Structure of superoxide dismutase:
Amino acid sequence: MGFASCLGWDNGVMLAPMGADIAGSKLVAAVANAGGLGLLASPVNMYDATLKLIRDTKKLTTKPFGAGILLGFDQSSTIKAIFDEKLACMQVYWGDFSKEMVDEAHKNGVKVIHQLGSVADAEKAIAAGVDCIMAQGPEAGGHVIGHVSVIALVPRIVDVIGDRNVTVVATGSIADARGFVAALALGAKGICMGTRFIASDESYANDYYKQQLLHYTEADTDYTDLYSRATWRAPTRVLNTPFHQKWKPVPQDVSNNEDQPIVGYSIIYGGETILRRFAGQVANQTTAGELENMVMYGGQGVGLVNSILPAGDIVKSVVEGAEKIIKELGSRTQVKPVKAVVLLKSTEGVSGTLYFTQAGDEPTKITGTISGLKAGLHGFHIHALGDTTNGCTSTGPHFNPASKDHGAPEDETRHAGDLGNLTAGADGKVEVNISDKQIPLSGPNSIIGRAVVVHADPDDLGKGGHELSKTTGNAGARIACGIIGLQAN
């Protein structure tokens, strides 16, 4: 759909940087190879681990990709690795990213995407010079920064940006082509999906976690601050699992500290991590332990996730599905053309049938055949009255709602009914094919019910110098006419 942009994507689909290795090299590369933009979940302030993650991804794709970082922690080492590897972009989240930091990123050839959840934060990000704003609604899974729905937030941010060169991406509960089209209608240029990509072949999420996603709906998620209280008191949207239902009433002063029981172990970024109850890490492919007693993030779009697919197929389905929907919407809203017809009659042996068609505000097209004419030019006009009780004489003057002088069809000064000349061949026939914007088939100046008149002589187009040039074009007698009537579609 023509989404080539400063971010390097082909189709406007972005992968969220989901932590604990979920958005790892394989998943990011798969999304990038399908024309989307994958974002790695980078470790907190770890230069070597970030470097390895980026280089492993580069082995799997030559397409642009980026990495996400949390601003609530010291990330200088991770940022240095991103700059050293010249990634296409860096997504920043949960905190301010100053103009000086944006300038430093740009100096290193790295675009900046700021994920945020309010218009106020968007204004700060715009002032800092970011390249893209990822507008997140509370419908999103994982850590949620805002309280305003995507459908309200995105157009507000689009309006604030105005004509500045900042791309808007919508994120939160978007999981299929319909969500993509909705985001585009709101003014976004792309979407970012997380929950949908967890349930992909290349996702590093534990298979148990992937399978659980297939059994939950939009009514089965919860907005909570139960997890990661000791390290990062940020609200999250999670699957409302039996474990979560049991523990979500836990008092606010209970933190997931060393006193909490161990529920499992994971290898995260190459190092073993102990998982305690209420820890914020989800289960990845290495996790062992009580998987059912671990957090499972999921957005309200989870009800649309009903299969585990290759990430490339997910991207393709979303993009091609959106193209199909947009095409169908276009056909639904296409204006039905108005059609009319006129049967020309004459005492001079002239006859013919002409067809009029107009779609919306497009020019009216006239087609058909007239026969029985003398070879040469014949004036051809729309007259004001649909009255043939006295032959063609009673059709009145040219149709001229603007009270202008007679002229040629291409002249600015002309009667609306001035359609110039028809050229009859030696056989007395003329094939009519005219397009004119001043003879609409609907509205206050509609020609329906008025008359078509063919004249005996050429129309001088108002330039002949005759006393009738400015009124009739001195086109001579009216030799054929007919009333324009609506035709069934």
About this structure: DSSP finds eleven helices and 24 strands in the chain. Residues 52 and 172 are 30 Å apart (CA to CA). Residues 311-333 form the longest helix (23 residues).
